[in-house]
Amino acid sequence: MELWNSSWASGFILVGILNGSGSPELLCATVTALYLLALTSNGLLLLVITMDARLHVPMYLLLRQLSLMDLLFTSVVTPKAVVDFLLRDDTISFGGCALQMALALMLGSAEDLLLAFMAYDRYVAICHPLNYMIYMSPRVCWLMVTMSWTLASLTAVSHTMYTMHFPFCMSRKIRHLLCEILPLLKLSCEDTSKYEFMVYVTGVTFLLLPLSAIIASYTLILFSVLHMPSNEGRKKAFVTCCSHLTVVGMFYGAATFMYVLPSNFHNPKQDNIISVFYTIVTPALNPLIYSLRNKEVIGALRRVLGRYILPAHPIL
């Protein structure tokens, strides 16, 4: 069979969720609104944590990195999807596809690792509060951030280079919202089963190991909280951890479906819905989940903006 992408001039066609929707205009407007919400909420959180010195502690420094990852992650995917729909042009160049894949893999993997480090931060804060600044010193905090970005970047670059080296057949349609490994491999003329198994192993390693660390951290937190003598202390600890667990559940649920479940559980429509969830919905909701019930963040926002733009009633 003739190969069509032997040069970098070739491109693909992204057949995402907007193309197959019964109400594409409404869905496009919803996606655009979620993207604007993600830009605003993550941008404000980045501004507040950066500008307010009271939030320059490990918990909020890690949260700032999460907001940065979410902001970049959704920006890699959403603007192109919306513009392509409006212009009725769903093509993406070979190089553009490789770049989008590398960035999405890097940011998704970095967030995956960062969430595990954030769970460890909560474990230290609740179970070892007197030694918190020893176990979570600025040096340790930045080491966690550096490890997240570095390991994710190496994994993303290696997988992208290997995926894009395959020859592809005449079909140019990627039935997915963005360029990702598994949908792209379906266009290959060669047998990719061994590499798909490698992708599966990488997905299990990058998802289940950090998830195991998160589960272990929160199991220890739960035991510690149950033994607290004060009801107020127990309530505060549960509220502090609830937001993180919500984010973990959304992110790992979608990522596990995409990269851990066997291929026979997948179909293009489901994969597109899941991809919208972790590339568009989750980045928009994460800063709201972290900040709506957080008095310190809201207080810092008021101080940074210089006026009381939020209601003065106590946070529920």
Please tell me about this protein's structure.
It is a single chain. This protein has about 325 residues and is mainly α. The protein contains ten helices and three strands; from the N terminus they run βααβαααβααααα. The protein has a three-stranded mixed β-sheet. The protein is globular and about 65 Å long. About 35% of the residues are buried.
Brief sketch in words of this structure:
By secondary structure, the chain is mostly helical. It contains ten helices and three strands.
Helix and strand arrangement:
Blueprint: E1 11-14, H1 24-51, H2 58-87, E2 91-93, H3 94-127, H4 132-135, H5 138-164, E3 173-174, H6 181-185, H7 193-226, H8 231-259, H9 268-291, H10 295-305
Parallel strand pairs: 1-3
Antiparallel strand pairs: 1-2
Helix pairs in contact: 1-2, 1-9, 1-10, 2-3, 2-9, 3-5, 3-7, 3-8, 7-8, 8-9
- Number of alpha- plus pi-helical segments: 10
Q: How much helix, percentage-wise, in residues?
A: over 70%
Order of helices and strands: EHHEHHHEHHHHH
Number of strands: 3
Query: Can you tell me the residue ranges where pLDDT is under 50 for at least 5 consecutive residues?
Result: 1-8, 307-313
State the main characteristics:
316 residues, mainly alpha, three-stranded mixed beta sheet, 3% strand, disordered N terminus
